[in-house]
């Protein structure tokens, strides 16, 4: 019996219609390097305005319905009211990011700090973040620890793991049954000699120990050069431990440039494993987030471009003829298999995405629609007084 050969375009349309990408509130604030922060006119002065900017991205892309908060950068008195504000603007609050790296107290670390009083303070903050989740209805708590050491001998590497594990258990136990802990890893920076959660293996091991609702966050900028990130994605999806992505691009280290800008082919390979591993299936719980800073380019437009870059890589991954690919792989047809992948990567998917946008009543060109809207000029005229939000406030 001949097997039915499905047109990959049909699947692509279905999946692309429901794909959603979460925006980081901090992408809308001023940011820079340690050498200089270049301010931009109309940048939000508070979390309310950051959410308004995120809503502008969703208005034109139709694919960014949630916005992640970073606490305390996005501190407000009433988080339920902030969630209502988001809803009024057509978006929702997504992941809550904890921040235990910006106080003087954290010089030697947060939850792995040798001082129990500092560890307590950090843990109290993590618990407070779960309170915020309760108020906003957020599902995910994302933890990234800047903890580590700068010099050999500075602290005991193994004891630091014990302290970390203790804190993670305490937070995990505090979570509601529908809430998850996302553990993010990063190779180095700000610590340079040792980092307490430096790689996916460490994050994975802690998550395994914690339980089902502890999952790994893969920030695409947090690896050594030449790391095969799609392998990590394949492995974690296979074991049910991939919780989320923090998407961005890197040339050197944690550059936080626009996703898909530095290496669109890598993003395509990652999205291929995402599709292969079922992370875009209807019942998938994997969160796709951006974690970026737009230092020299306009921020809202930068986010729109990023959403489109993810959509394009996804579309290409969905166009891979999986039946042909599997057949070539089975036959050991090295070049044939590679050609199936490259054919999909080299397809211009922009017309397909434009068509899908029109179907949803959107402008086929979100960048142009945003430009025409005059939103940025209006924001610059209206947002007078107060202090612009920066990366860290
Ligand atoms: C750390 C990180 C983490 C933080 C964000 C601002 O480098 O990727 O996700 O929360 O940057
Ligand atoms: Mn990140
Ligand atoms: Mn980062």
TrEMBL record:
EC numbers, comma separated: 5.3.1.14
Residues that span the membrane, as ranges: none
UniProt keywords, alphabetically: Cytoplasm, Isomerase, Manganese, Metal-binding, Rhamnose metabolism
InterPro entries (alphabetical): L-rhamnose_isomerase (IPR050337), Rhamnose_iso-rel (IPR013457), Rhamnose_isomerase (IPR009308), Xyl_isomerase-like_sf (IPR036237)
MF terms (GO), sorted A to Z: L-rhamnose isomerase activity
A Pfam family it matches: RhaA
Region described as Disordered: 359-393
Protein name per the record: L-rhamnose isomerase
